[in-house]
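Sharing a chain and its predicted structure for anyone who wants a worked example. Both blocks are below, sequence first, tokens second.
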Amino acid sequence: DVAFQAIVWSIPIGFVNSVTQYVLIAANQQQMLTRAFVLGVIFNVVGNLLLIPSLGYVGAATATILSEFSLLFPFYWMVRRSVGTVPWGKVFGPPLLAVAAMGGTVWLLQRAEVSLLLALPAGLLVYGAVLPVAGAFRGEEMALVTLRRR
């Protein structure tokens, strides 16, 4: 369904927003967080009023995605001001590279008429292989996982 294909794009943005909320709460920024949510709600209501009459449920899905973005930017500004800068390339680069490799593998195998039941596990293996090579498990993160001191 088109609405589900649209709304699925709000999930990664919503996940980043959710994690960011916890960071802001830990930084004692609840008051600013509340203000951002008020703006997000207003944005969502106005977006729904503008988009639903012409686009129906696809308009509602689009308004939801845009509302997540309307929270992402003030959240980032607050984190940058209260906690520090976020190295977006280091955070998202390795997983995005691994996802691209996984998607490419599944796509190529499907083009070669390999069963989806075989293509998906192969893609998952490629994802697992590319993730550490791309640098997802280095430095401070691995020290935390392995309980080593730096």
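Comments welcome. The mean pLDDT is 89.
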